[in-house]
Inverse folding.
């Protein structure tokens, strides 16, 4: 720590103004660490960052002073030489030397020779005059042409030849095959629920039941058709079952219009499962439809 040279108060390292009297202090000279590059006060002996000893650079001021001495010595030697050279310079002698050298150099002059161009004199050319020429008109002399009298020749008469009569045989009629009517199967008989039955609530169990004398094969089923009016448009759905009953799906609840009192109509017929023309599985009915019944689901 150092003391203020005015009041003697101890000043910590890095303070630039005395805290007691306010006198500005000298800025401590700094030095850069050659190991880590940290800039520190020259009063320090050890780098506060890496702990490496700070080596004061005494060679740089010596080199700067030597360079200044050499520069001054060079200037003292060059200035007298320049003054002597300017005094020995004679401008009139230099000008006469340049003129004598220029007189000995040949000069080529380019002279343009004008070209004479002759202009032709126009000559009057006489214009020929058209002289009328009389052309004699030839006279027409009639020439007699002899008339040739045609000679009559006899025209041969065509000979009539009888045309043979061709008799075409009528083809015998091909008998038409009459398709044999396929045997019809009696439709199923519906019995539950009663026609016009009323059901209430979404959780109502509506069982559609029927009977049939036909024994189903593996590819046959009962095709149930349910239809109703939705938004004024007739809508229907179909389902194919193996049993003789089917419970109405809950998704049909309140689908029918209120104007029809939520009425649903249903019927059953026998159908056979098989591919259609596009290859998709479809159900082809092979019996008439049963008597249609209805129920109300509110």
């Amino acid at each position: 720590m150092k003391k203020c040279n005015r009041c003697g108060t101890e000043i910590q390292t890095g303070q630039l103004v005395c805290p007691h009297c306010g006198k500005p202090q000298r800025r401590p000279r700094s030095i850069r660490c050659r190991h880590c590059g940290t800039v520190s006060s020259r009063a320090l002996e050890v780098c506060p960052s890496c702990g490496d000893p700070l080596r004061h650079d005494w060679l740089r001021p010596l080199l700067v002073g030597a360079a200044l001495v050499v520069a001054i010595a060079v200037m003292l030697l060059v200035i007298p030489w320049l003054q002597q050279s300017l005094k020995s310079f004679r401008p009139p002698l230099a000008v006469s030397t340049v003129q004598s050298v220029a007189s000995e150099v040949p000069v080529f002059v380019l002279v343009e020779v004008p070209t004479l161009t002759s202009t032709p004199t126009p000559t009057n050319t006489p214009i020929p005059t058209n002289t009328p020429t009389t052309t004699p008109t030839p006279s027409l002399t009639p020439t007699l042409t002899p008339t040739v009298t045609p000679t009559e020749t006899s025209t041969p008469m065509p000979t009539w030849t009888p045309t043979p009569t061709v008799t075409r045989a009528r083809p015998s009629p091909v008998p038409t095959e009459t398709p044999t009517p396929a045997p019809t199967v009696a439709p199923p008989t519906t019995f539950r629920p009663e026609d016009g039955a009323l059901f209430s609530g979404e959780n109502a169990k509506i069982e559609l039941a029927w009977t049939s004398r036909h024994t189903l094969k593996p590819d046959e089923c009962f095709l149930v058709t349910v239809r109703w009016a939705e938004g004024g448009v007739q809508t229907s759905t179909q389902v194919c079952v193996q049993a003789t009953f089917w419970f109405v799906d809950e998704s049909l609840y309140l689908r029918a219009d209120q104007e029809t009192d939520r009425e649903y109509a249903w019927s059953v017929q026998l159908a056979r499962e098989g591919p259609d023309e596009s290859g998709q599985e479809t159900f082809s009915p092979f019996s008439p439809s049963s008597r249609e019944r209805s129920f109300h689901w509110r």
Observations:
- Residues 220 and 272 are 4 Å apart (CA to CA).
- The first helix runs from residue 59 to 88.
